[in-house]
Prior knowledge:
Blueprint: E1 3-6, H1 16-31, E2 35-38, H2 50-62, E3 69-70, H3 86-98, E4 102-105, E5 108-111, E6 118-123, E7 127-132, E8 139-142, H4 150-160, E9 165-169, H5 176-185, E10 192-196, E11 199-200, H6 216-221, H7 226-234, H8 249-255, E12 266-267, H9 270-283, H10 286-301, H11 307-316, H12 330-334, H13 346-352, H14 357-370, H15 376-390, H16 394-406, H17 414-421, H18 423-439
Parallel strand pairs: 1-2, 2-3, 9-10, 11-12
Antiparallel strand pairs: 4-5, 5-8, 6-7
Helix pairs in contact: 1-8, 4-5, 7-9, 11-17, 14-15, 14-18, 15-17, 16-17
Amino acid sequence: MIRVRIAPSPTGYLHLGNARTAIFNWLYAKNKDGMFIVRIDDTDTERSTKDFEKDILDNLKWLGLEWDEGIDVGGPHGSYRQSERFDRYKQVAEELVEKGLAYIDDGAIKFRVEKEGQVAFTDLVRGEMIFNKNDIEDFVIMRSNGSPTYHLASTVDDIDYEISHVARGEDILPSTPKHILITESLSKPLPEYCHLPLLFGPDGKRLSKRHGATSVKEYKNKGLLSEALFNYMCLLGWSPEKDVEVFSHDYAISKFNFKDVLPSSAIFDENKLMWMNGLYIRELKQDLFLSTCINELSLKVNRNLYDTEKERLKILLPSIQERMESLNDILPLVSFVLDEKFIVSEDHWKDVFSENTEQYLIEVKEALINIDTFEEDLIEKTMRDLLEKCGIKAKEGFQSVRVAVTGSKISPPLFTSMFALGRGACLARIEERIEILQSNN
Length: 441
């Protein structure tokens, strides 16, 4: 059976590179009806934290990567946490010493590398790989403090958990000959190896904090939909078909194979990611878009929304779905219909104010008081009819009302905004602006 794994170290938030590696492993397991395993490589006890571990596991799940075996879900191989397997690593190290394949040096245990011959294997992405043994120095597998090195712990775990395919970043490629030597010294079958291309920024340098956000958490906080991030991450080194860029989890599963991954570095382009996120937002069905926005707004204002707010949003949200690129776009566009403190941008007000503004606002207020029903079409007709009477252009008049009732020059369509807000709130905000103007005369 195909058994693949992701083995993150909880010394930081889930990195985009690790997330992409997890996605590729998950896709391969699903395509082959295999098992996707998550274990925690927490031998670095000083830097490992439960908070980082929680972030990693939560964001793997957020991306849709449920695992079949491993941390939190259990399985037939005991613990899936390296810090709980030190006795096992010690046992293997001592076994290698007894066989003469390792030796003690200054309290540490080193693996003895025979200098003749080669280490060769076929990488599923890079083809035939050959390393001369005389280029590989004896290496530490157990430190003097009793903790295992990555080489020993990772290899023993892959053996014990019966991993059939080890797919990881190409930065680990120089270590693979050492892992093969350990595996062979224990008379165990070798897995298939697959070294995935690293992620680079648009400047051609390895993706790092100088390029901006590098963790799944940061992009989640930027208002990304999990489906959009998953889709985009799939394209970093792989493509299901020519000219196919937007696809579902199931479609990706049906097409994925490690052999189709490109060996060249993958360029992470945040602009393209945000473009794709906008596509996904615009494709959401209305009910799902509404519930997604309400959940996002509740998080932003740190409370559950009132039913009256939800009713206003039902009117308003369909008009902004086409304009959004991120869930973070929602609050600035609709905050004026929430029962939060209302603030008018004075800079925006200065931009729209003219000598005709006060009179137009007065006329609009009186007209809106007297119209029979506060409906969108009637609001628009009433305000348009008043433009000529006040000798004011549409942009000049409408923008002054927009800033008065929404607080900003940038809002959803004006008449939809006013209808969603309601007659009472619109009149109160227009009146407040009139009073400010009159007090300044």
